[in-house]
What we know:
This protein is 42% helix and 17% strand. It has ten helices and eleven strands. It has helices at 7-29, 44-59, 75-87, 106-112, 124-131, 140-152, 171-180, 195-199, 248-251, 265-285, and strands at residues 3-4, 34-40, 63-69, 93-96, 160-164, 184-188, 204-207, 225-228, 232-236, 239-243, 257-258. The strands form three sheets. Strands 1-11-8-7-5-6 form a six-stranded parallel beta sheet. A three-stranded parallel beta sheet has the order 3-2-4, with helices on both faces. A two-stranded antiparallel ribbon has the order 9-10. The structure holds nicotinamide-adenine-dinucleotide (NAD). The site of nicotinamide-adenine-dinucleotide has 23 residues, from helix 10. NADP(+) binds at residues 165-167, 231. Keywords: Amino-acid biosynthesis, Histidine biosynthesis, Hydrolase, Methionine biosynthesis, Multifunctional enzyme, NADP, One-carbon metabolism, Oxidoreductase, Purine biosynthesis. GO terms for molecular function: methenyltetrahydrofolate cyclohydrolase activity; methylenetetrahydrofolate dehydrogenase (NADP+) activity.
Amino acid sequence: MATIIDGKVISAQLLEQVAADVIEFKAKHGITPGLAVVLVGDDPASQVYVRNKVQRAEQVGIRSIKHRLDANVSQETLNDLVAELNADPEIHGILVQLPLPKHLDEDEIVDAIAPSKDVDGFHSLNVAALATGKPGLVPCTPQGSMTMLRQTLDDLTGLHAVVIGRSNIVGKPMAALLLQANCTVTMVHSRTRDIASVCRQADILVAAVGSQKLVNADWVKPGATVIDVGINVEMLDGVRKLCGDVDFESVSKVAGAITPVPGGVGPMTIANLLANTLQAAQAQMSA
Length: 287
Ligand code: NAD
């Protein structure tokens, strides 16, 4: 039976560290790190994510300011808000909750955020920094997944990591981080041929697809470390339940270690958002 990589425990450790560092930051600079969270419209999942982020921020001593905009807000109004937040010295991190309503240009908004305040790490300059191994703000979910891998495996050097999914927010930055950690990295996606046989070669298997229980035991090499990023809703006896991209029941019998859903990567994402906010505040104070 696989070891369970407990995201609640590991994220609690990280949050404790961030809270201690925030106290030190306040003592040193006499100001509180500030995070602005922008929510457009009333998508229920986004509302839950934003509420959790704001609550956690307060718990570690980061001031969070929520800006809620109407679903039919214009691009110009949203751009103006981001410009205002960019110029505000009390705001060190800006997060625009995605996805945005269809009439808004996400790429434009992401690139309108000052790179130094881009705590999601999605700005083109931060993406370029990650790709070229330069310092910058790194997307929270892959960063959290790496922390889990480092706590589970002594050394990642030379291990074969397979990442399923090639999105800009998870798959691609995950592959970049694994490469930086000296893994041999393979990316597979919806057009990959014989995906199961590629995944079976993985020492580290990261699933970031959004497809319920796609990865079964036949895809997994015995003893592999499996990180399940997926968040899917399944109906079990008429009850809504969260499940990942990995069939936990069968894969946990084959893998060496595995993250559960919920309670795996999810809590790490928020913890890293707050770590990024502090990192952004520290960088802005020393700029
Ligand atoms: P996305 O839809 O942007 O990308 C999905 C990727 O999966 C695509 O690159 C696609 O090529 C690939 N794909 C689709 N079908 C496939 C298949 N049958 N076989 C192999 N590859 C396939 O999704 P995303 O934003 O990267 O998110 C992926 C999942 O991770 C979602 O369930 C999302 O909810 C979840 N997620 C979780 C967190 C967290 O904090 N735990 C954060 C972000 C995303």
